[in-house]
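hi got a favour to ask and not much time before my train. below you get a single protein, a line of residues and a line of whole numbers that encode the local backbone shape. could you go over both lines and see whether the tokens make sense for that sequence. a few lines back from you is plenty, here it is:
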Amino acid sequence: MLVVDKDTFEPEVLKAEGIVFVDFFGDGCVPCQALLPHVEKFAEKYSDKIKFTKLNTTKARRLAISQKILGLPVMAIYKNGEKIEELVKEDATPERIEEMIKKYAFE
């Protein structure tokens, strides 16, 4: 998984062609840390179809707000730079995350 920050988010996500998965997480977010091994497994499994990135919102607060990230965890799919789907908080379960990834990996 590619770690993005305030300097690399635009070129790696917003200006990227195709599908990009973004894991918005925070340093003190326990659910985020619990989901990380699952997300990393999905990144290995689907990396040939989708670009996987993660953004530490603790270190990029303004960027997170600009992307309308108001709570954590958030898993989002961007297509050609536009956010087209996201899972927020309790909706971000391993099963739902993989369903979302599969939806765009095989379209």
Summary: The radius of gyration is 12 Å. The chain has a mean pLDDT of 97. The longest strand covers residues 19-25. DSSP finds four helices and five strands in the chain.
